[in-house]
Structures are given as structure tokens and as C-alpha cells.
TrEMBL record:
Belongs to the OXA1/ALB3/YidC family. It is a multi-pass membrane protein. One of its GO terms (biological process) is protein insertion into mitochondrial inner membrane from matrix. The keyword ATP-binding does not apply. It is found in: Membrane. This is Cytochrome c oxidase assembly factor COX18. CDD domains: 5TM_Oxa1-like. It comes from Poecilia latipinna (sailfin molly).
Length: 324
């Protein structure tokens, strides 16, 4: 959920996510696989394939098997308990892959926002020139609007090329993070339900109130922590948006609803998945706070923040909104 800011700004939605998630709640009996894949899978391929259709193909795909092998290798190399191995693997992936993309996203967004004043000035001059040309050529109002919009799009595209900041680049984080999240989630589901050789390790690889990672968290602690963390990320994002558009408010409310919906979903899947989702959201929230630091922003070349005390300002805004 770290990328909620980028999702709202770029208007990128993923409506099929909950369709995928709803399928993980039903374990499938494993079958014996007699064929070999070009990538050696870490889990038995029959359990996912038995579901049939696109979900079975996705669960038994090469990228998901690569994620399984990564998780198993991380556990074997570190020698950590499975619950801590999952948490460490999550933190390392998000730090090495998604954190740099999040910083890049902020750079692109800052460049696009810096161009708005220039675009506004160009639009004024272009509107005047089109009106003059329209009177000379006898254009109708509709023809003048078409000419204005066509030429404005061309000029704006030239500005994006000049500053190397096309808004689509800001959505790169989404196109990397979402497949990675889905792949690791399916990998953990396969390892928890469809690989008998690892079932015993994962059944004893939990901690505290979730000792068995192959069954759902009956206490609902992990699911509730996941939902609260996602809601906190959204609220922190909403505090920094002043004068949000109606569309942005609708998208934000949609993500709030999805965060609440994730609680019962996380309570119906193996604890290993709920643990991964919670760790991923928690690390993402930490990265969100890290990228607000003036020192970090100057180090990575991000635009300077408006305030030198971003954390104090954020806390004050949060208290002012919810406790006053």
C-alpha cells in the first residue's frame, strides 16, 4: 500500500486484485506432477493446477516458482525461523526494488508539478493564437476547441520529453510492485498448502499467537494489524493532499474500503500470507516516512521538502484532524 499516492495521482486502479485474493482462501489438494518444467518449481504443481483456468496457470507459472525458490533459499541461507525469514525477505525485496522506484516516482511527480505553471502560461498564449487564427479561417467554436486541445497536447508532450518526466513513468512502481506482491503471495500459498515436504517446517515455523503458518490466524491479530496499517498509510497520504479533486477523493475512499475488506480476506488465508501482507505494508509505511526526511531527500536528489520538520508537521496535522 505504499504506492497509494502514485495510484491516486496516476489514476491507476487494479480492479481484479480482490478476485485473485478470494481464491487463496480455499486450499486445494496437491496432485503428483510427472512432468518437468524449464524452471524447477519449489512446490508441487498439482495443487494449483487442480484449480484449473487462469488461476491454476498463474499459480503454476515460472515467475511464481521463482518466488518460491527465492523464499526457500532465503530460509535455508539465513537459517532463521520461517516467520522471521518471511519478514526479512519482504523487507529486503521492498528495500532493494520498490524503495528506489518510489524515490524515482517522487522525482517524476515533482518534475510534472513544476511544469504546471509553464503549461498554464502556454495554454493562455495558445488560446489567444487559436482565437486569432479561428477568426481568420472562419472556424466554428467546436473547430477552435479541437485545434486548441490538439496543439496543447503536442506542446505538453514536448515539455515532458524535454524534462524527461512523462507522467506514465510515475506509475512504474505500480507495474513492478503489484506483480511482485501477487507472485510472492501465490508462492507462499503454494508452499503452505501444496508442498508436503515443507508443511511440517511451516506448521512449526510461526511464533507467539500464530505458531502454525499453514492455517489462518484464528485470533485475527495479523489481519487487523494489516488493515490498520493500510488505513494509516492512506490517512497519512490524505493529509498531504490539499484540495484533492473529486476523482481523487473517490479513489481514496475506494482504497479505504478495500483496506477494510482485506481484514476478513487475511483472516481466511494461511498465516504465512497474512504475515507477508502485514510486513509488506509495514515496510512500505516505513519507506513512506523515510522519503519525507529532508536529509534523505537531499541525498537521493529529491526536491527539498516544504518544511524541515515533516514528522512533527505530520503528527500535528493528524492530531488536528482526528482529535480536535
Amino acid at each position: 500500500m505504499l504506492t497509494v499516492g502514485g495510484l491516486v495521482r496516476c489514476r491507476v486502479l487494479q480492479p481484479r486484485a480482490r478476485d485473485v485474493l478470494s481464491r487463496w482462501a480455499s486450499p486445494v489438494l496437491p496432485l503428483t506432477c510427472t512432468t518437468e518444467s524449464s524452471v524447477r518449481p519449489a512446490s508441487g504443481s498439482g495443487g494449483a493446477s487442480a484449480a484449473g483456468g487462469w488461476y491454476g496457470s498463474l499459480s503454476d507459472s515460472a515467475p511464481v516458482h521463482l518466488c518460491e525458490n527465492f523464499l526457500v533459499s532465503a530460509h535455508q541461507v539465513t537459517g532463521l525461523p520461517w516467520w522471521l525469514s518471511i519478514a526479512m525477505a519482504t523487507a529486503s525485496i521492498r528495500t532493494c526494488i520498490t524503495l528506489p522506484l518510489a524515490a524515482y516516482q517522487l522525482i517524476i511527480i515533482a518534475k510534472v508539478e513544476a511544469l504546471q505553471a509553464e503549461i498554464s502560461e502556454l495554454a493562455k498564449r495558445l488560446r489567444f493564437e487559436v482565437s486569432l487564427r479561428g477568426r481568420e479561417q472562419g472556424w466554428t467554436d467546436k473547430q477552435s476547441r479541437v485545434q486548441f486541445q490538439k496543439n496543447l497536447r503536442r506542446l505538453v508532450s514536448q515539455l515532458y520529453v524535454r524534462d524527461n518526466c512523462h507522467p506514465f513513468k510515475a506509475s512504474l512502481l505500480v507495474w513492478v510492485q503489484l506483480p511482485l506482491w501477487v507472485g510472492l503471495s501465490l508462492a507462499l500459498r503454494n508452499l503452505s498448502l501444496d508442498r508436503p515436504a515443507l508443511h511440517g517446517e511451516l506448521a512449526a515455523g510461526g511464533a507467539l499467537w500464530f505458531p502454525d503458518l499453514t492455517v489462518p490466524d484464528s485470533t485475527w491479530v495479523l489481519p487487523v494489524c494489516l488493515g490498520l496499517t493500510n488505513l494509516l498509510i492512506l490517512e497519512v497520504f490524505s493529509l498531504q493532499r490539499v484540495g484533492a479533486s473529486r476523482f481523487q477523493r473517490l479513489v481514496l475512499n475506494g482504497f479505504r474500503g478495500f483496506s477494510v475488506l482485506m481484514i476478513p480476506i487475511a483472516a481466511s488465508v494461511p498465516s504465512s500470507l497474512a504475515l507477508y501482507w502485514f510486513c509488506s505494508s509495514l515496510v512500505g509505511f516505513g519507506h513512506n516516512l523515510l522519503l519525507r526526511s529532508p536529509t534523505v531527500r537531499r541525498t537521493v536528489g529529491l526536491p527539498a521538502p516544504q518544511s524541515e520538520t515533516p514528522y512533527r508537521d505530520l503528527l500535528s496535522a493528524f492530531i488536528s484532524k482526528y482529535w480536535r
